[in-house]
From TrEMBL:
Lineage: Bacteria, Pseudomonadati, Pseudomonadota, Alphaproteobacteria, Hyphomicrobiales
UniProt keyword list: Chloride, Chloride channel, Ion channel, Ion transport, Membrane, Transmembrane, Transmembrane helix, Transport
Alphabetized CDD domains for the sequence: Voltage_gated_ClC (cd00400)
Protein name as it appears in the record: H(+)/Cl(-) exchange transporter ClcA
Domain of life: Bacteria
InterPro entries, alphabetized: Cl-channel_core (IPR014743), ClC (IPR001807), ClC-type_chloride_channel (IPR050368)
């Protein structure tokens, strides 16, 4: 006992005792630390789950994985369709030029004058018969129809009318009509992007994304410019840059480019020469070029609008219009064969300084007239290529004049032609960002970025000051589709009474006397008309009658419910644009 007490009292024993106590303390602390870390990790996982779970749920409920997969299918399909479209134009062209090459000017110069006149005229006969017999709207589709379809929830582009529209455009351009092929390919791409999957019962926002995906693939396949395809779909078609739309549009654009490159190779749409900016003192010349390009773009749109107005006011059977138009275009082409078809060869000539000044100035007038006549005559075609054509001629002519007056400072003619392409096209199309990117991708470099942005911004701004809208939005407003002023303007015109009306009450009235009971609504009346009728009548509820039986009540419309539906649609549109 005493020995144990002595041992415990010794320094060594106390040291061992302290070690045991410290070890136990450290063990408890270690266990506490482990438990604490586990709790922290568990809490962090819970917080991460709360953060991620709603996003995953939204991602899956929006069916975005399916949308991504469908976008790849659309990209490949549209890319292949763009190839077939170009082949079809070449085959029609071969019947009278004897070549499938896009260098139509060289082949046309070897033909007798009467062949140049007869080709678009005979093409007009075929187009006129097709418009009269199989095309319900009696015109070919274009970019404006795609924008309208986007406003209507990605619907309104049925499959077979879209295919027949592409066939009409194929005949038109192959026979020498003076227009572009990119707009019709955009229409075809949007048609394929929506009509193929229309039976999947996808929400409107998803259908709009698929529509834009088809457009992106069409543009990228046409120009070998995938980034420009993405931007064009966002800028012109959707009108926003929502993240949910970005991925499928990029996938579709990339797939369209790959398919196109597998067939045509990795070549640009135009043969772009070497260029350089000699001095910063040249930038005032780029400002002046932007102003001149604005004048050309404004004049071109006035020509398109004016010729369309004249054609609408001339009483003529629809089948005869393309025949007369083809005869007029052929007559111009006898003197200026550069105006026929898409015009890529002439554009290349301006880019590479192969055309004299007088010819380029003459072609500005001739091409403007030929394209205006072509489109007013109901031929199929677009304005993308003609806008690039006019821009190249404007820039090329400007470059020659600048070089003659300031040879030490002026850059090459090709540089000014490139800048002119971007400046005129951006103003006409109302797409400065995507048009700028097309020029960047065509040239393969960004050395001219500042000069291009200056010319594009000035041209687009002056065109907006005069016209207030792009050519596409002018076309839409001619059809009563007002998209320029925001969603609230067009929602009141595409929402109908049947969308928010309630069925008749079991104990309510089922018959209606217009003379004694006053105001009423019909199922297909627009929200705009309904709100005006509510205001004029001073009532909160109005009967909805059957148009076929004006005395039969088929429902009731509430003023408050109409406003609630309108507000809900506005909120939904705003959420879609920012998600």
């Amino acid at each position: 006992m005493r020995i144990n007490q002595q041992l415990k009292a010794s320094p060594d024993w106390r040291f061992l005792g302290n070690l045991v106590k410290e070890d136990a303390s450290h063990s408890l602390l270690h266990q506490a630390t482990i438990l604490n870390r586990a709790n922290v990790l568990k809490t962090a996982m819970k917080l991460a789950y709360k953060w991620i779970e709603p996003n995953i749920r939204l991602f899956m409920s929006s069916r975005l994985p399916l949308v991504w997969f469908l976008a790849l299918i659309i990209g490949a399909t549209v890319g292949g369709s763009a190839i077939l479209f170009r082949i079809g134009i070449s085959l029609v062209q071969w019947t009278w030029l004897g070549t499938t090459s896009e260098r139509m000017i060289s082949a046309a110069s070897e033909q007798p004058w009467y062949v140049i006149i007869l080709a678009p005229t005979i093409g007009g006969v075929i187009v006129g018969l097709l418009l009269y017999t199989i095309q319900k709207k009696q015109r070919a589709g274009g970019v404006a129809d795609v924008i309208e379809a986007r406003a209507h929830g990605g619907t309104g582009l049925p499959f077979w009318p879209g295919i027949s529209s592409a066939f009409i455009t194929l005949i038109s351009l192959g026979s020498g009509a003076s227009a572009g092929r990119e707009g019709p390919v955009v229409h075809l791409g949007a048609t394929l992007g929506t009509s193929i999957f229309s039976k999947l019962n996808l929400p409107d926002s998803t259908m709009r994304i698929l529509l834009a995906a088809g457009v992106a693939s069409a543009v990228s396949a046409s120009f070998n410019a995938p980034i420009a395809g993405v931007l064009f779909a966002h800028e012109v078609i959707l009108g926003h840059y929502a993240m949910t739309a970005f991925v499928p549009i990029v996938l579709s654009s990339a797939m369209g480019t790959l398919v196109s490159r597998l067939y045509f190779g990795d070549v640009a749409a135009f043969i772009v020469p070497e260029y350089q900016i000699n001095t910063y003192w040249e930038f005032p010349a780029f400002v002046l070029l932007g102003i001149i390009c604005a004048i050309v773009a404004i004049t071109f749109q006035f020509a398109l609008i004016g010729s369309d107005w004249i054609a609408r006011n001339v009483k003529m059977p629809v089948w005869l219009r393309p025949i007369v138009g083809g005869l007029m275009v052929g007559s111009i082409a006898v003197f200026y064969p550069e105006v026929i078809g898409v015009g890529y060869e002439a554009t290349d000539g301006a880019l590479n300084s192969e055309l004299p000044l007088t010819l380029m100035l003459s072609l500005l007038v001739a091409k403007t007239a030929a394209t205006a006549i072509t489109l007013a005559s109901r031929f199929g075609g677009g304005i993308f290529s003609p806008s690039l054509y006019l821009g190249a001629m404007t820039g090329g002519a400007f470059g020659i004049i600048a070089a003659n007056n300031l040879p030490e400072m002026a850059s090459s003619h090709g540089l000014y032609a490139i800048l002119g392409m971007g400046a005129v096209a951006s103003a006409v199309l109302g797409a400065p960002i995507s048009t700028t990117m097309i020029v960047f991708e065509l040239t393969g470099g960004y050395e001219l970025s500042i000069a291009l942005l200056i010319a594009v911004s000035i041209s687009t701004g002056l065109n907006q000051a005069i016209h207030g809208r792009s050519y596409f939005h002018w076309q839409l407003e001619m059809r009563g589709v007002m998209l320029q002023d925001g969603a609230h303007k067009w929602l009141v015109r595409i929402v109908h009474v049947e969308d928010f009306a309630d069925p008749p009450r079991a104990d309510g009235e089922t018959t209606f006397d217009p003379q004694s009971q006053g105001s009423f609504l019909a199922p297909l009346d627009t929200l705009e008309k309904a709100l005006k009728t509510f205001d004029d009548a001073g009532k909160s509820t109005l009967p909805v009658i059957d148009p076929k039986e004006p005395t039969k009540i088929i429902g009731y419309a509430s003023h408050i419910k109409a406003l609630r539906y309108f507000n809900s649609a506005l909120i939904q549109a705003n959420v879609e644009e920012h998600r």
